[in-house]
Amino acid sequence: MNQYIICRMRDSIFSFLMKDGKAVEIHCDREENASVLGNIYVGRVRDIARNIGAAFVEIAPDTVCYLALDEIQNPIYTKKGSSQKIQLGDELLVQVSREAIKTKYPSVTTNLTFHGKYLLLTTGRTQITASSKLAGEEKKRLIHLVNELESESNEKTSDSPSGEITTSNDTQSSPRAYGWLLRTNAGGADGDTLRRDMELLLTQYRRVIADGAHRVCHSCVLAAPHAWISRLSDIYESSAEQFLTDDEGIWQEAKEYLSSCQPEDLPRLAFYQDALQPLCKKYSLERQLDNALSEKVWLNCGGYLVIQPTEALTVIDVNSGKYEGSAKNRQKAFFKINREAALEAASQIRLRNISGIIIIDFINMESEEDKEELLHYLEGQLRQDPIRTVLVDMTKLSLVEITRMKKEKPLRAQL
């Protein structure tokens, strides 16, 4: 059984996404240092650096965030200067889209996103779109269904929230002030299921817009739920049939969240009770965490990976190690080690939440056909990662370049 396990360890809340008893994702959420990811603030533009295409927005005293100018979509201003463009002193609603990582500022966006299990409501893009993993007739059915549900909602309630607030010209001329994105979870969903998700998100959106119009600068208009709770809406049923915890407080909080937002998932929540064998011991969670922090990872073939994060990128070095193969079939041996290393590297990237630039140094191979096959195999493994991961290319030295979207801190930094 695949499970999402939430427990307290090392004075933090850890969540483990388990597949056949092995962790595929590990997250650490420190209660005394809560993440601001997903929070919505009334921010003030403190500086604009057009030479690098950025604005710097202050969301709290001395807390400055990076806002890319070319990604500003339908900004919602609570205080606006005379220029139609963004300028110093403007106050607007922004959402934290990426945490501070090492020396980099947190990133914010004007595209406010409200997460449901099946739908996302977005203020930046006002169309109805669907996940790329939804295709064909199912995609058409779901988009048509959302259109119908939105029409029903518009008949009951005006889409214009109360409160004096200034939006961009694009928003004013748009047929709607927000858009919908159908998530992969929406596959097979019926009208009642999508309607409930839509109503919850619309209520949240209208409250934020109305409250934001009257809040002072630096106010947190919406605090995102704890990260381990937010992940409950991101986990497909095929990824985890059970949400398991042995902590009564966590169980109660999860139950309240699921009851109000995802009642269909309540049967997946389970409370673990066994005084003789604690949850951490039963699933060897401490050992799995230590393995996810280890620099060296052994492969079944006898080879191993060395994973080393640096300031600019993460390097994964593939070594033949204890592999015993015939010298005559050396190239076949190298291909076998590299193929197993590709599978493990993709797993470790997701497990450790490694992001940014990643370089994998495979063992050199002579055959161009073997290189192409290895890249194709690696790309297929990376595609299974829920966070956007792109295989860029392989250099002449067999260095494979990968980029992975930055969102949360890597596991080591979370600790």
Polypeptide structure, described:
- By secondary structure, the chain is an alpha+beta fold.
- It has helices at 136-156, 169-173, 191-212, 227-230, 248-261, 279-282, 285-293, 330-352, 368-382, 411-414; strands at residues 3-9, 12-19, 22-29, 40-49, 54-60, 63-68, 76-79, 91-98, 107-109, 113-115, 119-122, 128-130, 166-167, 179-182, 220-222, 242-245, 269-271, 296-298, 304-309, 313-319, 356-361, 389-394, 399-404.
- Strands 4, 5, 6, 7, 8, 9, 13 and 15 form an eight-stranded antiparallel beta sheet that branches. Strands 18-19-20-21-23-22 form a six-stranded mixed beta sheet, covered by helices on one side.
- A hairpin with a 3-residue loop joins strand 19 and strand 20.
- It is globular, with a radius of gyration of 24 Å.
- Mean pLDDT is 89; it is low at 159-164 and 166-174.
Task: Name the descriptors.
415 residues; alpha+beta; eight-stranded antiparallel β-sheet; six-stranded mixed β-sheet; 29% strand; globular
Total E-strand runs: 23
The amount of helix comes to 25-40%
Q: How many individual helices?
A: 10
Q: Give average pLDDT, whole number.
A: 89
State the shape: globular
**Radius of gyration based on Cα positions:** 24 Å
What separation lies between the terminal Cα atoms? 28 Å
Strand percentage lies at: 25-35%
Give the class from helix and strand content and strand pairing. Answer: alpha+beta
Largest sheet: 8 strands, antiparallel
Unreliable stretches = 159-164, 166-174
